[in-house]
User: What shape does this take?
Amino acid sequence: MAKRKIIKIDETKCTGCGLCIPNCPEGAIQVIDGVARLVSDLCCDGLGACIGHCPEGAISIEERVAQEYDERKVMENIVRQGKNVIQAHLAHLKAHHQREYLKEAMGFLKERKIEVTLEEAASCRGQFTHPHSEVASGGRSASFERSHVHVSSGCPGSRVMDLRNKKDASSKEKEAGLRSELRNWPVQLMLVPPFAPYLNHADLLIAADCAAFAYADFQQDLLKDKVLLVGCPKLDDIKIYKEKINQILKNNQIKSITYAHMEVPCCFGLVDIIKDTIVDSGQDIPFKEVIISIKGERLS
Assistant: This one.
């Protein structure tokens, strides 16, 4: 073993939220007994992609004696998780100018006859899967299935924020009726981690993204007291939506789900997806569908 840079997790600060996990496609971190832990020196490259996603500042980089990072061991784990994970890993190496590791990774893919180009990796926007892990948090355990999870690859604008305890609206806001009812961030379905703290025991509002623009009373009538998830059933892959909603339901106790969408045909595709995921979850979750007309009227 040699002395090298490797991540360090302060267990006194870690809350076990798991936000670091999807940003470590190498699989070096798992949440065990409610705390994030580095489970393999071999898989940690010490580059710290996970650091910016820890809301508690519990992760840092230290220099200590550790097993040498093994790119081939990492790639054995990566390829099992699919092309999106491979792209995320290659993009990670390329962004940190790890030419030797990148060369080794590309050689491994060539040996396995897996076709992923560096151009594809460069266009990767943080689209990868969770390593399979068991999470115990707040007395409840959760199994994260291997499925597509879109995350913000280091973008501070996608940091998870729970807005449920924000200050009351000012008198001017109340008079003008301008108070925002938004209780969470991010809201884009692809970006919301399935273990975000605001999801548990939440009333979910899943909204086709045009609905909020068409329906003038969207916030007061639909969003109030709900956690918002937004997506476009026409432009995005609804199979990935199904996987993400499945994860959310498996990892949280959901009180109800409302799906608000436009009257156009492409928006209806998500109705059956949501109903199916509710059945698959085994939970008795009330479901309500709200249809908005192109003229901005609530039809149901």
The longest helix spans residues 238-251. The CA atoms of residues 130 and 146 lie 6 Å apart. The chain has two domains: 2-129, 160-292.
